[in-house]
Design a protein that fits this description.
The protein is an alpha/beta fold. Helices cover 38% and strands 26% of the residues.
């Protein structure tokens, strides 16, 4: 195992299993929880579970008690096309590996099954649902070995394959979402969470003058004058595509978060799930 992957795994495992991360069984809980009963509040109970209506009527704090109805089926879909071979701070592919490790360890900690798929122009690798913690290491090693150069993103392949998963699942799609996609049908069957990976230079490039740019999907190169006007038009197009992306997610009730290569993914993921599961 490469030293870089070892560091990613150690860091992700420490963050997920450390008490610093809180007393929740995982950074996500999913929808598999049923209401059972009300009971009087005890010291240490989560105040967010207090039923304020009953508390007001009985003049004593009462909390809602839930039981886990079923385990979650956590699925990671990684779209590792050519643009993942880029990063000013670190490659997006390395960031994807760290995020995948955090989600994988979280599923294991919560005693949920998890599986993963590596996509680009086709399916390159996958693992069946498992609770084996060693599967997280295997996944990160495969991400590290994967060469995205010369590979285009085909989201039809991704959506068609993930839709075939019979059981309703918590599906994380990890991509930079710079290519066209449509999750309308997929989001009707599964709970979909989109994790957008970007480098800041992809959204606001430097005014570098004449430079030789290489298309990581086509492996072709071209000389471009990256002046103020070109930069302005490029940023306008990125914002237009992102606006469409955000609207698509909102209309289809898809939670999403954008994580840059210079950010700590665990912190951002905690914020994402805190919005609903806190």
């Amino acid at each position: 195992m490469e030293k870089k992957i070892k560091k990613i795994l150690i860091k992700a495992r420490r963050q997920v299993f450390s008490e610093v991360a809180g007393n929740n069984p995982s950074i996500f809980k999913g929808e598999g929880f049923d209401f059972v009963e009300l009971r009087e509040y005890n010291q240490g109970d989560d105040v967010k579970k207090i039923d304020w209506l009953i508390t007001a009527k009985l003049q004593k704090p009462y909390v809602k008690v839930f039981k886990q109805e079923r385990e979650l089926n956590v699925v990671l879909g990684l779209m590792l096309n050519g643009s993942f071979f880029f990063g000013s701070k670190r490659f997006k592919k390395d960031l994807a590996a760290e995020i995948a490790a955090i989600l994988g360890f979280s599923a294991i900690k919560n005693q949920d099954s998890f599986s993963y798929f590596i996509f680009a122009d086709r399916i390159y690798n996958f693992i069946k649902p498992t609770k084996n913690i060693h599967a997280v290491s295997r996944m990160c090693e495969e991400i590290e070995r994967f060469d995205p150069l010369g590979k285009k993103a085909d989201f039809n392949v991704l959506t068609n394959r993930l839709y075939k998963i019979r059981r309703k699942s918590l599906v994380f799609i990890i991509s930079d979402f710079l290519s066209d996609f449509d999750f309308r049908v997929l989001s009707k069957k599964h709970e979909v969470v989109a994790i957008i990976l970007r480098d800041r230079l992809e959204e606001e490039p430097l005014e570098a003058g004449f430079i030789n740019l290489i298309d990581p999907e086509e492996k072709s190169s071209a000389v471009l004058d990256l002046d103020r006007g070109t930069k302005k038009e490029y940023m306008k197009e990125i914002k237009r595509k992102d606006h469409f992306m955000y609207e698509h997610f909102r209309k289809n009730r898809i939670r999403f978060i954008k994580i840059y290569t210079d950010e700590e993914p665990f912190v951002k993921l905690m914020k994402l799930f805190g919005q609903r599961y806190g």
